[in-house]
Amino acid sequence: MISGEVFLDVRELEPPEPLERVLEALCNLGPGQRIRMAIQRDPLLLYPILTRDGYAYETRCTETGDYEILIWSLKD
Q1: Residue 61 pLDDT grade (very low, low, confident, very high; cuts 50, 70, 90)
Q2: In whole angstroms, what is the distance from residue 18 CA to residue 28 CA?
């Protein structure tokens, strides 16, 4: 994990808590920071919110079938 990266593991949480947690983390994100989120399912409801609020993201499916989403502000 690199400096300026916030790791958010929400794999054990049931909806809507993962969405609530990542939105809260975004509110506390400092300049140049990004979030790396681990989650059990593809968070389809999150993507339009990120786009609307000026964030970019990359999603990848891991070998275990979980998802890892990297989120950063387009303003940085």
Answers
A1: very high
A2: 16
Residue 37: pLDDT band (50, 70, 90) is very high
**Contact assessment for residue 68 and residue 59, using Cβ atoms and an 8 Å cutoff:** yes
pLDDT at 3 over 70: no
Instruction: Classify domain 5-73 at the CATH class level.
Output: alpha beta
Nearest to 10 by CA among 20, 1, 2: 20
Give the pLDDT mean for 11-25: 97
What is the residue extent of each domain of the chain? 5-73
